């Protein structure tokens, strides 16, 4: 698979990624290399990754706990302190080896430590590969509010090694798949249609589906790096999805990101249909795919009210108005859409009463 030129960096795939890593390390006089992992990637991915690095430069491993609860300023402070204690300077390199939480934190820490050191993203989850590690967004949560603190800073390179997907659970794979489905819904109808019958999907072709998903996100980001216009389309399903994820974050059975986004996409597709920009046939096609992939989560009246209250904190909001991304048919979107609470509540009723 050919490399993709991104906004100030390059996305490499499989073997070519490690070749690019060697060139980068050899071409820069890095004083030290820090690899950020969580306990899972430390065990399952780090040995394979270190086996690909040939350098005399000092390598240090920093491990954080896995999970969304770790994505906090407190974690960043611990990492900044470790970097300082281990003598990291402005010529150090940070490599984030992990899923979306690790790459989000690693990029944020690197971009702010001593006003910025070089960093590389090596996503090991499907969600990280098709979404979190691409586009330059880095940051942490503020309490239960998703991605409230952060900045845009691009890595030197991104390495997509699809063999890391073999370490994932089916639930983690479905979480990442939600973002792939989103890319088809907002940008490429033919790509979406490849997922209509997953039973006939040849998983030996998964690399090509993975590649196209990353290509779609990269194409959108190249057109709008700072999210002033078309990049907002990538938030389809996330306005309600992030609020749902935040609401259930402290429950006995929290949702992973892709599960919450899948619910958000179904709800926002229903809203699109009710507003007349999505046909009923297209909506029921979307609903069929999503409900066959993701377990339906029950919502009480209090749950729905909590989600509505959380919407005011969405990053896309402007002048106190909640901004939605809605579908204009499969493969196209309308951004900055205002949606009445009554319509959101109707969407929840349609979702829960299958």
UniProtKB/TrEMBL annotation:
Question: Start and end of every 3-dehydroquinate synthase N-terminal domain?
Answer: 62-174
User: Pfam families, from UniProt?
Assistant: DHQ_synthase, DHQS_C
Domain of life (superkingdom): Bacteria
Q: Which CDD domains has this protein been placed in? A: DHQS
Origin organism is Flavobacterium aciduliphilum
Q: State the needed cofactors, names only.
A: Co(2+); Zn(2+); NAD(+)
Q: Which GO terms describe its biological process?
A: aromatic amino acid family biosynthetic process; chorismate biosynthetic process
Name of the protein in its database record = 3-dehydroquinate synthase
| Keywords for this protein | Cobalt, Lyase, Metal-binding, NAD, Nucleotide-binding, Zinc
Task performed by this protein: Catalyzes the conversion of 3-deoxy-D-arabino-heptulosonate 7-phosphate (DAHP) to dehydroquinate (DHQ).
Give the Gene Ontology MF terms in alphabetical order: 3-dehydroquinate synthase activity; metal ion binding; nucleotide binding
